[in-house]
Specification:
The complex is a heterodimer.
Chain A (H helix, E strand, L loop, with lengths): L1 E4 L13 H27 L4 H28 L9 E3 L1 H18 L4 E3 L8 E3 L1 H18 L6 E8 L2 E8 L6 H11 L16 H12 L3 E7 L2 E9 L8
Parallel strand pairs in A: 3-5
Antiparallel strand pairs in A: 1-7, 2-4, 5-6, 6-8, 7-8
Chain B lengths: L6 E5 L3 H13 L3 E5 L2 H11 L3 E4 L8 H9 L9 E5 L7 H4 L4 E6 L6 H10 L2
Parallel strand pairs in B: 1-2, 1-3, 3-4, 4-5
Helix pairs in contact in B: 2-3
The chains are: A alpha+beta, B alpha/beta.
Chain lengths: ~240, ~120
């Protein structure tokens, strides 16, 4: 098992003026838009059963929602100078909200997402919306790489004065070559966003990294033999959990 | 059925998009199989010896370039024509990838569904 923190100075720079990130955003939006276009063509061509029509309509809705999540993330990431309210949060409850939000998308692809429950969850200091968006990005990433046999799981773990909130997928492992590229990029301190796996331009991680930094958190990844965990380390709240 | 003997392997990691490609090609009379990542694709190519590979550029587990390199390294797979179907089409020149067996490049962002069947037909001429 290999672990690496996804830290880089460039990620904390404002999105505005960052040409690489701008190009990546454009590229990342191409995929859902191209898919929606093809699905619309299929509906327009007719010759579908009513069940197929319903299924394709649902796919269009879910794909649109994914694209809209990305545009909202980009808008939020451009507000880095804004102070986001930080408060004690129950990360397990937040994981449950994220799993609930992503369940229709997972179900439509015959996949599952679950939360590892805890009776006494540690609290974190964070912003609910930013942390939720980080986990949605990790969840989206995990959906792409998970197999139908094993659910993607969200878990919370206390590690000293930090709390780790992670999203674990069970799919193709990050190859040693890709892991090497990832590590080099982590330590390059350039504006080039990280990309843990080849399919993605890495924009989701770039955004997650920015959001984590707005809360003094840090994202990272663990490579497993059968998948990967992407996580965010948050400051633990000293407030007692009464939940 | 016309073209019944033709096997097109669709290598596309977006499940819903690959379904649409399969629907279009089946309607055109082609027999298809799907792979969602590079390693499975290589196994299916070995097993099925498809007449055409429809290949996305960015895949789970590997890139199309890795797969094309591997195909080129074996005598029995090196001649399989490849159609790249990608969002990166505007960044790729056919001349630069023709040595990998790429015969057509389709831009996912502008393509009409029928372009897939047209491209398959053209490389099999």
């Amino acid at each position: 098992m290999r672990e690496g923190r996804l830290t880089k100075n460039a990620a904390s720079e404002p999105f505005g003026g960052d040409t690489a990130a701008f190009l990546m955003a454009a590229h990342e939006l191409k995929s859902p838009l191209a898919l929606i276009r093809q699905l619309a063509f299929a509906l327009d061509a007719g010759q579908l059963t009513s069940g197929e029509q319903d299924r394709i309509a649902q796919q269009i809705i879910l794909t649109s929602e994914r694209a809209l999540r990305l545009t909202t993330d980009l808008t939020t990431s451009s507000r880095q100078d804004t102070l986001f309210d930080l408060e004690p949060l129950n990360p397990v409850t937040l994981c449950e909200d994220v799993a609930h939000e992503l369940t229709p998308l997972f179900t439509a692809q015959d996949k599952k997402i679950e939360v590892i429950s805890r009776t006494k969850p540690p609290l974190v200091v964070g912003n609910r919306d930013l942390l939720r968006r980080i986990l949605l990005n990790f969840g989206d990433n995990a959906l792409h790489y998970s197999s139908a046999d094993h659910p993607v799981s969200l878990a919370v773990q206390a590690t000293g004065d930090k709390v780790r909130v992670g999203v674990r997928d069970y799919g193709p492992a990050v190859t040693p070559d890709m892991w090497q590229v990832l590590q080099e990029r982590l330590h390059a301190h350039t504006a080039q966003p990280v990309s843990g796996r080849p399919q993605s331009s890495g924009l989701g991680l770039y955004i997650a990294d920015q959001f984590a930094r707005m809360m003094s958190g840090e994202i990272g990844a663990i490579r497993h033999r059968d998948g990967a965990t992407f996580y965010v380390d948050m400051t633990a709240s000293r407030q007692l959990s009464f939940l | 059925m016309k073209n019944m003997a033709v096997d097109v392997l669709i290598v596309e990691d977006d499940i819903w998009l690959s379904e649409q490609f399969e629907r279009t090609l089946s309607k055109a009379g082609y027999v298809t199989r799907r792979a969602f990542e590079g390693h499975t694709a290589m196994d299916l190519i070995d097993e099925l010896k498809p007449q055409v590979v429809l290949l996305d550029m960015l895949l789970t587990g590997s890139t199309a370039v890795t797969l094309m390199h591997e195909l080129q390294s074996y005598k029995d797979t090196g001649d399989i024509p490849i159609i790249l179907c990608t969002n990166l089409a505007s960044l790729i020149r056919l001349d630069d990838v023709s040595d990998y067996g790429v015969r057509r490049i389709i831009d996912k962002t502008t393509m009409h569904p029928d372009d897939i069947a047209t491209a398959v037909r053209s490389v099999l001429l």
